[in-house]
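Task 17 of the worksheet. Students: predict the tertiary structure of the chain below and write it out as structure tokens. Keep your answer in the requested format; marks are given for formatting as well as content.
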Amino acid sequence: MAILRFGPWSVALSGAGAINPITDFTSPPLGFSSPVNIAKTDWPNQEWGAVYLGFNSGSYVSGGVVGLGDTASVVDSGFGSELRVRFFYQTADDISVDFNWGFVNSAPDVNGSFVWNKFTIEGNTESDSGSGVNGSESINLEPSALGLISVSVQLPSGFGGTIEISFT
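Model answer:
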């Protein structure tokens, strides 16, 4: 199946044209645009990437772009934190990406939570959620002209530490 490229960045599954990359994360980016990745490889002019946004007590504190195999993180203020990561993908073959998450330097009895969602332009959806100290989830990326993966990991108030997320 031949796929016409969307992107290099997009805001929604509508594939509404090429969106410029976010380069300033001093405040929360408007529209939460994200890279469009080709399977698990780099485009000739763009490395694989996912946008992450970190929040403490519901307020934006940091963000950036993380590559495949790199780690996104946010340090908890002690009053609850969340790390959101998202990217678009295109693939002609079934592949999977592993979503890895955990809490570093937190209280030993921390019970954080995660949720991930997948949506495709063809109308397919899938999601999962859970809790614990750390884990890894394999997300199947079925063939799609444009798919969206969004992930959220939350650390409840009172535990402190750092939330970390990576994709492999």
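Marker's comment: The two ends are 25 Å apart (CA to CA). The CA atoms of residues 102 and 134 lie 4 Å apart.
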